[in-house]
Amino acid sequence: MDFIVNWVQSHNLNVDEVRMDLSVIYPVHITFQTRYILKRIQRCLSNTTQGLPDAKHLIALSGKPRYIKKAKQIIGESKLPVKVVEYATPTNPYSPGIARNFAVKHASQKHLLFWDIDLLGNSELFQAIPQHIKEIQQDTNIFHMYPCLYLCNTYTKHFKNDFEQLWLDATQLKTNTIEHFAMATSTILCDKQHFLDIGTFDEEFVGHMGEDLELLNRLSIAYGKYPFEHDHCEDWPSKVPAELKGFRKQFALYGLENLKSNLFTCHLNHSTRLYTPYKNSNTKNRNLLLKKIKNQNNNFASKVTTFKFPIYLTKKHKITLTQTQTTTRKLRKLVFNPIHFFKDIK
User: pTM, whole model, 2 decimals?
Assistant: First the structure.
């Protein structure tokens, strides 16, 4: 609570002004393949419930009965202020989007923050959320999306929630730190009624991939903060911001804005089984995503214009070792010239 009090005092606000009318939504599905969640659920929920103590935390819990029982036992014994709602009829393969929609039906607060159980948030992010909620209260079309550092397996094993050290290690390009930096994520903060009005997570997406990007597209259409480019309907994934094209390029801008303010999460590494029904849905969902974005974009053709990334995302030149010798320079590189950083960790 200390950092919240400090934030309140530094902004000359009283406690009542920053009370968060917020529900934090977690889709949690535990099977034999994802039983690692049981070892992390207390750590991750402690992070968010301590960071957002005034919020209501709500889990849509599904999976094998013995794992559900164990998860509820862990939450109960830890005395975590979390409401568990059993999601008795999950799809096969599992759909995070449908699970989130199920949880939202049980959410009583006016704002939503979608969060995954593998994530940890830094204190700066939690401190910023009350102000972001105030922005949304002034215009319900506004949403915030937070970027994520995906930790490698080695760093995950030794990570002790020291986000300052993580930031330094990542910006110093320390080996065995992060696998990649995701600029567009499903960690979205928005107005609940607005989320319902635009149609919630599209429940045609079953399995891995697509539901979060499709929602981001509708949110960005409603917000209208960044104009659409002519190639908006195209999918050009890349770990380098300047090489992103189409809708991924626009979504990255929302992540970049918060990254500049040091607002990010980290994703704890875990093994992923390929060729499961969940993963095999990737291609089908990608095609569905492209189809839906094309249809949605056609409805807003008047908004399509030409937009270019800021110069610090497009300027390219070779980075020498001497350019990255000091922490200050590395931090400046990530904030002011992120293209250099992302090219190094590609």
Answer: 0.82
